[in-house]
Hints:
Elements: E1 8-9, E2 18-22, H1 25-29, E3 37-42, H2 58-75, E4 76-86, E5 88-91, E6 94-97, H3 98-108, E7 112-120, E8 135-142, E9 186-188, H4 193-196, H5 220-230, E10 236-239, H6 246-252, E11 257-262, H7 265-280, H8 298-303, H9 306-312
Parallel strand pairs: 1-2, 2-11, 3-4, 3-10, 7-9, 10-11
Antiparallel strand pairs: 4-8, 5-6, 7-8
Helix pairs in contact: 5-6, 6-7
Amino acid sequence: MLPEVPVIASAFSQDSRLVILESDTEVACRSLPREFFQLIITSPPYNIGKAYERQATLKEYLAWQRGVIEQLATLLGPRGSICWQVGNYVDDGEVFPLDSYFYPIFKELGFRLRNRVIWHFGHGLHASKRFSGRYETLSWFTKTGTYVFNLDSVRVPSKYPGKTHHKGEKRGLPSGNSLGKNPSDFWEFLADEWETGLWKIPNVKSNHCEKTIHPCQFPVELVERCVLALTNEDDWVLDPFMGVGSALIGAAKHDRKAVGIDRDREYCRVARKRLASLYAGSLKLRPVGRPVHEPTGRERVAQLPLQWLEQDRGPK
């Protein structure tokens, strides 16, 4: 269990550990210290008409987001990273992959793309006029060529841990890292994740234990891996579109300090409640490595009325 919950401040102070700013993102960013944060991680509004956003044209949306990113660039420390997790913008049935539109914005501001991570999940909305979308992207940018990357903190078990070199000077010696392997930039969420080295992080839907009132909530585990790899203890993490606080929870779990910004009062209330539950040890989080439920096809049969099953058996 974590120590007693720290005071969750409503205004930024370097003496705080957790800060929730109920504010417009651009307004709040003006009050934050420059070149201060080690990690900025968020999933910005996708401009798809959710309750918390005003849908605009793609051009208007990207112009607004560029202004936000310009501000965030001034808040990020020289060894810092930005993780920008997005899906698709859809207009009249046409799909616009948002990460491809964001890349030029970050590039023009001097950021360097280190990985374009594909987050693949097995469940989501079903499309009828195109193939159902089952992935989103997380783009990891650094501000400079010198940055924090703690690979050992996020290694996954090797597929062949006993594999050895078969020739040369190292013949017979282990060919892999004893701590495990690099999880790669393709995060697939399969039941045997911890045997294959693939990352299993289901999206947060109605039956997910982390589900709250937010319609587009991302899982805490997604944040945790970025926090562990790209920050050190007591570093500051910022989520400029906080929602219900998943990024703050991922940071707090690993002794990082964090600031979250959201203009929705109810989301801020839920975020505070979730953080309090985290420190009390009662917050429901999906355990790392738990197998994703894979339907067998028998569930539907088990729910059929008994008389239907009797009919399907045919004559005795």
